[in-house]
Amino acid sequence: MNRRRALQLLAALGTTGLVAGCGTDDEGDPTATGSPIKIGLVAPESGSGRAIGEDIVNGFELYLATHGQRLGGHPVTLVKADEGDNAKTGQAAVNDLLKQGVLALTGVVNPTVMSGIRDIVEQARVPLIGSNASPVSLQSVVYIWRTSYVLDEPGRALGAYLKQRLPAGSRVLMIAPEGSSLDVMQGFRQGFGADDPRIAGEPVWTNPTANPGESTYVSDIRQALNRRPTAIFCHFSGTAAIQFIKQLRRYRPAYTGPIYAPGFLTEGSVLNEVSKVLLDDEDRLLPGPIQTVSNYSADLNNNANRIFASAYRKTYNVSPSTYAMASWDAAQVLDGAIGLAGANPTPQQVNLALGKVGQIDSPRGVWQFNQPRTPQQRWYLRTVQFDGRLLSNVMVNEIATLG
């Protein structure tokens, strides 16, 4: 999307002042001549993480398009690299971008990739503003910042919320893929209380495959339901989320209780793919609510979100996800930091400036970086219901501030 297309889009939105009103003073001046810079974006281009990667690319590119293709007053060339699906492919992508002289890096979907590139980024002294992957183990970093959240936080927020609201005698069953879900499950137990008798034993660990089939989770679900839960807490995303929801729904009416999860479970295209098993023959929601916790909901009522969500829907014909929002914010914090870093910024100067950007007026609500370089931010409870004619994640209320 070029600048002309961006201005046409903003005119359609009634927000033509946005280009001049956001970021540094130089951005609104078409004659501003900051030195050109390169930003490297790392995201998967195939496999199970492709959909999240597309959202990350969309969010960052939309910010550039609506801000004159500039960050901090400098014309930007966005250089993309495929992170692949493991640490080695991620390392190769980062090394390639560093050779091209990028001022900063962004993106990264897979937590394994984030852990695998940690030392490369720190040794190169080039800031990385990660917009998704944020494992708990990633600590004591200087050049890695994240605009998403630490992986145990959704579980902590939802666990603390449910602890106060589930009645005595409830039985909460935890189920998730083995290995990749450990941070989330531990966060939930921390928030709910590890010794709370309402937790129905240890989690049921499922096959961690990124491409599950139509019966991958059947035996695990049967094992889970044998414990007679009154509520289920799970952690699945993408294709795995689609298959888990479909396979769990086969066990109606044996289980019609609530399903709780981090927002991944119903994010992106998942709801469209599972709508048939969530609705009856008259397109009404079947019993058994699905509620998720996220740092973002596309229906949040604030000015930053009205601008972002409207632009995103008009450009991509879908509502924005938390992945796209976090990438938009990664561009926004880079915009501020590069502007603070001066006329000829170096990666080290940008990294220092990232600690000075202060509060971010984000579509998720105002947030700021904490000492570990992750957001201190609000968490929202969402429920799957109709928003007009569309099945959507509708915000119920704010349940926590973490970070």
What does this 3D model show about the protein?
This protein is α/β, with parallel strands linked by helices and 403 residues long. Helices cover 38% and strands 19% of the residues. It is built from 13 helices and 14 strands. The longest helix has 19 residues, at 322-340. The radius of gyration is 21 Å and the shape is globular. Residues 1-32 have low confidence and may be disordered. InterPro entries: BCAA_transport, Leu-bd, Peripla_BP_I. Belongs to the leucine-binding protein family. It comes from Micromonospora purpureochromogenes.
Q: Which structural class fits the helix and strand makeup?
A: alpha/beta
Number of DSSP-assigned strands: 14
* Residue share in β-strands: 15-25%
- What low-confidence regions span 5 or more consecutive residues with pLDDT below 50? 1-32
Rounded to an integer in angstroms, the radius of gyration calculated over CA atoms is 21 Å
- Main beta sheet: 8 strands, mixed
> In angstroms, what separates the terminal alpha carbons?
35 Å
Give helix % range. 25-40%
Helix count, DSSP H or I runs of 4 or more residues: 13
Order of helices and strands: HHEHEEHEHEEHEHEHEHEHEHHHEEE
What global shape is seen? globular
- Mean pLDDT rating: 90
Summarize the structure.
With 403 residues, the chain is α/β, with parallel strands linked by helices. Helix content is 38%, strand content 19%. It is built from 13 helices and 14 strands.
Question: What key attributes describe this structure?
Answer:
disordered N terminus, 403 residues, Branched-chain amino acid transport system substrate-binding protein, eight-stranded mixed β-sheet, six-stranded mixed β-sheet, 13 helices, single chain
